[in-house]
Amino acid sequence: MKMFYKKLTQTQMIAIGFFLIIITGTLLLTLPAASRSGQSAGFLNALFTATSASCVTGLVVGDTFQTWTLFGQIVIIVMIQIGGLGFMTVGVFFSILLRRKIGLRTRGILQESVNTLQIGGIVRLVKRIVIGTAVFEVTGAVLLCTRFIPRFGWGRGIYYGIFHSISAFCNAGFDLMGEGAPYVSFTGYADDWVINITIMALIVVGGIGFLVWDDIYTNKWKIRKYRLHTKIVLSATGVLIFGGAALFLLFENSHLMDGMSVHGKVLSSLFSSVTARTAGFNTIDTAALQESSKMLTIILMFIGGSPGSTAGGVKTTTMVVLLMYLKANVKKENSCNIFKRSLEAETIKKASAVFCTNLFLAIAAVVAITAIQPISLTDTAFEVFSAIGTVGMSTGITRELTAVSRCIIIFLMYCGRIGSLSFALSFRSNKIITPVSQPVERITIG
Fold it and tell me: According to the model, what pLDDT value does residue 153 have?
């Protein structure tokens, strides 16, 4: 067993770790005690839900409140927390508490899991991640309780505050608001400032990445000292949130938001922009969005959050690097520059590989699902990009998918969480490749 462990690459360890978490969650959710019907929910439904929770996606085949008991909901929220932070982060933190020595190999796997740039200081970073997560989630829970306790009472109100705070921070999108009607999410709170601002803040903080936290914590307001990574993430996040909100307001002002108050429209636009980048909640009816708004949502879902965060997608840094590379080529510049820094060729290659891998996987999935069953192309694309971006937003077709289509979505959620490129690399062996290059010959492009 130890020899097998040593032969595994860091990427393979992460892929296998998430797989084991999903299988464990699936087995627990198949128990009759997890289902409100008193009977097993079935292996495929349990597998779909466990994958969605562990991969912090939020797509569901049945309303979370109406389908799962308290036991089932606790299983789901525990998987969300582990999946959001990363099982290696959780495991290493417990090792720190037990005063166990953290080996170099474990530190390397942790570096890959957290997606940090260097292995030095990784244990200190883990402590900050866990403590920071606790602070943000507790603060979010307290604020949400101010709205939930008056409506649901003390016990349920506190439980709802904790559940939704964890779900929002981990960008999971699971909610328990379906008591009166299923799949309503936060549509009843579209003009509630406390609910909207708290949920959005948790999503954004969870989605900017642990590296950015660490940089801000270290340098405070000294922006000039921020790493290039932090500057790119914060700039891209701001542009996507407010640019997306402006477009949602433009597209839906006289349609879905018609009749809303001014602050209701502003909140709904901002919430739609924030949640589309891998959170999965909604305050307006997703299925009723105009085609332009659905297309905008798909783009935001594909981009997602930032590296080393609880969010999915190809990541903000990937898109910024590709846009800067495009700009450099158009202007015929010698290097790809941003914030007075030049980007490495390796960074550009990796960004291209991540973008293409995710896009090709998504297109292949859309073709496969539309070939299997007669579903609208837009709705299928929406579902597919939601899955691979680990977003969880849906136009309502999840429960209509056949067994094969659900398996495709499960695969996409898994790839989206560990990284599509990482999943592909997990099949690569550890053997040393001889650095031999083939003869070069030019071809015409474009």
Answer: 93
Q: Model confidence over 212-231: pLDDT tens digits?
A: 888 888 888 888 888 898 99
Least Cα distance to 109 among 133, 139, 86 occurs for: 86
Cα radius of gyration (the chain)? 22
Q: How far apart are CA 337 and CA 344, in angstroms?
A: 10
Distance CA 253, CA 241 (A): 17
Residues with Cβ within 8 Å of 331's Cβ and at least 6 positions away in sequence, in order, are none
Query: Pick the residue with more confidence: 52 or 425?
Result: 52
Of 117, 112, 127, nearest in space to 13 by CA: 112
Q: Cβ of 397: how many Cβ atoms within 10 Å?
A: 17
Instruction: Give this prediction's pTM.
Output: 0.90
Kindly list the distances between the CA atom of residue 173 and the CA atoms of 81, 170, 186, 191, in Å, as whole numbers in the listed order. Answer: 12, 8, 10, 19
Looking at the chain, how many residues does it have?
Answer: 446
Residue type for position 293 = S
Q: What is the reported pLDDT for 108?
A: 63
What is the residue whose two structure tokens read 């959005």?
200
pLDDT tier, 241 (very low <50, low <70, confident <90, very high otherwise): very high
Tally of CB atoms within 10 A around 24: 15
How far is residue 192's CA from residue 114's CA, in Å, rounded to a whole number? 34
Binning pLDDT at 50, 70 and 90, where does residue 8 land? low
Q: How large is the angle between the packed helices 210-219 and 228-252, nearest 10 degrees?
A: 120
